């Protein structure tokens, strides 16, 4: 059995044609992308010349931006329609250092252990049945000393209010039903999965949204959205 929820795949596949519309349901991803890209390079170093894997790449917003920084990027996902959108956009943009595959991260880990300098897995863990398995696979895919970056949502009441009631029902930033609170992940849980997988936690950041200015920012508050940076142990 693949580590995938068919309903989650269908949810994002139905919106696949809107991935690159910055005014669509994917607007939040377009707006936070410069923040997460900047944090990845600030924490793990410049991406130019590095081999990068983006797990759960969707329509390729982050994958394409990392390729534009000079990285050799592979984006993987199990949503076929989203991948086709990503491939078409990369083709139109003429980005040669970017490719995509429809493959589960666990299968790729068995095929290409230790191949990548950097692995990213953003806004994906809360959409799969077994997130710990994804963390383990990401750890297997990165080389010793390489970096792994995660982002997800904190399972606590404030996150329910902000990310579901606020973002989905009051502000309409996301389609209703985008998230399921029971699948949110506490930072302590994610950190434990990382340690168990041979990853050493290096940095943590929170991400906030100001509804008045309609701007996102990185901060020290990990009570809703948060990012973790880890390194694979060894030389």
Describe the structure.
It is a single chain. With 235 residues, the protein is an alpha/beta fold. The chain is built from eight helices and eight strands. The chain has an eight-stranded mixed β-sheet. It has one domain (6-232): Rossmann fold, CATH 3.40.50.
SSE layout:
Elements: H1 6-13, H2 27-44, E1 51-55, H3 61-68, E2 72-77, H4 80-93, E3 98-102, H5 105-111, E4 116-122, H6 131-141, E5 142-153, H7 157-170, H8 187-196, E6 199-210, E7 215-219, E8 225-232
Parallel strand pairs: 1-2, 1-4, 2-3, 4-5
Antiparallel strand pairs: 5-8, 6-7, 6-8
Fraction of residues in helices? 25-40%
| Large-scale geometry | globular
Kindly report the average pLDDT value: 93
The total domain count is: 1
Under the CATH scheme, which class?
Alpha Beta
Strand order of the largest sheet: 3-2-1-4-5-8-6-7
CA-atom Rg in angstroms: 16 Å
Topology as H/E string?
HHEHEHEHEHEHHEEE
CATH topology: Rossmann fold
Structural class: alpha/beta
CATH architecture: 3-Layer(aba) Sandwich
Name of the CATH superfamily? Vaccinia Virus protein VP39
Largest sheet: 8 strands, mixed
Specify the number of helices. 8
**How much of the residues is beta strand, in percent?**
25-35%
Tag the structure with descriptive keywords.
about 240 residues, alpha/beta, Rossmann fold, 8-stranded mixed sheet, 8 helices, about 25% strand, globular
């Amino acid at each position: 059995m693949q580590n995938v929820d068919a309903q989650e795949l269908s949810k994002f596949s139905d919106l696949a044609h809107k991935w690159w519309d910055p005014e669509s349901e994917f607007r939040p991803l377009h707006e936070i992308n410069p923040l997460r890209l900047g944090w990845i390079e600030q924490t793990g170093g410049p991406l130019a010349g590095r081999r990068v894997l983006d797990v759960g790449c969707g329509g390729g917003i982050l994958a394409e931006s990392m390729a534009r920084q000079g990285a050799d990027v592979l984006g993987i996902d199990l949503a076929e329609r989203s991948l086709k959108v990503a491939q078409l956009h990369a083709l139109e943009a003429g980005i040669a250092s970017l490719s995509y595959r429809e493959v589960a991260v666990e299968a790729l880990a068995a095929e290409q252990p230790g191949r990548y300098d950097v692995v990213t897995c953003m806004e994906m863990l809360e959409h799969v049945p077994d997130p710990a398995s994804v963390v383990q696979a990401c750890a297997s895919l990165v080389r010793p000393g390489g970096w792994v970056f995660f982002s997800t949502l904190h399972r606590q009441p404030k996150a329910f209010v902000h990310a579901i009631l606020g973002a989905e029902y009051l502000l309409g930033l996301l389609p209703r039903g985008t998230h399921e609170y029971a699948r949110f992940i506490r930072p302590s849980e994610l950190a434990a999965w990382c340690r168990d997988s041979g990853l050493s936690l290096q940095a943590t950041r929170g991400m906030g949204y100001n509804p008045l200015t309609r701007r996102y920012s990185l901060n020290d508050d990990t009570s809703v959205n948060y990012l973790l940076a880890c390194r694979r142990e060894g030389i």
